[in-house]
Structures
1.
Amino acid sequence: MTALSWGRRYLMCRPEHFEVLYEINPWMHAEVRPDPDRALAQHERLMATLRDAGAQIELEDPAEGLPDLVFTANAGVVNGGQFVPAHFRHPERQGETPHDIAWFQSHGWRVDRLPGDVVHEGAGDALPFDPEGGEGPVLVSGYRMRSDAASHTHLSRLTGAPVRSVELVDERLYHLDLTFCPLDNRRAMVAPLGLDPYGRKVLKALVPEPLVLEDEEALSFAANSVVVGTNIVMPACPPRVGRQLEAWGFSVAVAPVDEFQKAGGGCRCLTLALDVVLSDLGRELLPA
Ligand code: ARG
């Protein structure tokens, strides 16, 4: 097996303005406020754990009034030197996009936009899988809860990558990154709870050795993990999952992020991989 070709560079955003001010997923309750100091400390520890795992971290500035900007996974889709910004479903998050675009533009990415009438929530709903012996990476993308199926054709046209659409069916697992976590070129964590029968079939055909998560495991956000080579940083590690990952040669580190779970997010949601290359087009746009 070959390790993931991506996952060594991440964009993150310090939780200086993180709060639960509105409710746009079933985990958010405006009366259950995150503790700001604990959130900062957990974020700090997540960054330290990722660095120990071998990752490099870049930071975007937090912004007042944009409490979910910390969930950088939703900023957009990265393809080499190309960035396709998200189109958020909820008005509460739409103000994040100009900030994200400004960061990517000032750091040398070419920004290509989806048409205004389709919704797509970035890498939170789009993760590459590059199957052994395949023809290159396939972008697995979720739809129904927070992204439109119609966005997938546009995403494929813009990035030049084949997109495999999977329907998300459980409101608690509202983004793909709560249901699917690529581990290498043969393996991924997959939570059937979040997928319709056809989506399960699509992932079964794509991933030769899935680590199939039980419902409880999926609801502990086990799939919302960050994979840095053979190191996996998880918000929680159910024992059975840990044993399987270790048997496969991965090392697991837990970085608790329960303050962020109050907003419906785990470790993966707090990161956006900057080193994903989906196609020749993206590769050609990388700085020489
Ligand atoms: N409160 C945020 C929202 O509902 C959480 C985003 C979590 N991000 C993710 N990639 N799953 O939009």
2.
Amino acid sequence: MKKVGILALQGSFAEHAKILEQLSQKYIFVRSKQDLENITHLIIPGGESTTLEKLLWEFDMWGHLKNKKLNIFGTCAGAILCQKLGLDIEIERNAYGAQQASFIAELDSKIFKKLQGVFIRAPKFKVQNKKIKILAHYKQAPVLVQQNNFLVASFHPELRKDTRVHAFFLTLNSD
Ligand code: GLN
């Protein structure tokens, strides 16, 4: 059975929770390795990837994340962590500029019409592996991609009212 968790150590976890509530999806906030044992789907929020990674090591959660094949949705900093956990893309951190250069833009996507992306010190993705599905672009660069159990966005879907990307994540199946 599907059990959803939101990593709640740092970053925009409360905003992800609001989206799940709009979807009437139950969730737990994940703050320990015991919490990780009880879920099939994990959202890793935006925030600061260096801090998040440090906390995951400190709380002895990194190894569990690496070994347990959870469905993981990483947004922004969360996407950077997904790459470190095995997602086969290259990442350039902060490639869209500093905090003050944050912006909202409409993305190009066949699946999600008129999807808007909020970019805050966002990473740029480079995708070479042909098996990776690119679900949205911004100015020709992939910004929403999926590989098996990983879904990552360089933007912040949790900061808009649009629930479609989260709903899509919830359809991913762990096998
Ligand atoms: N620039 C941040 C990092 O590298 C990510 C920013 C964000 O999540 N909004 O971790």
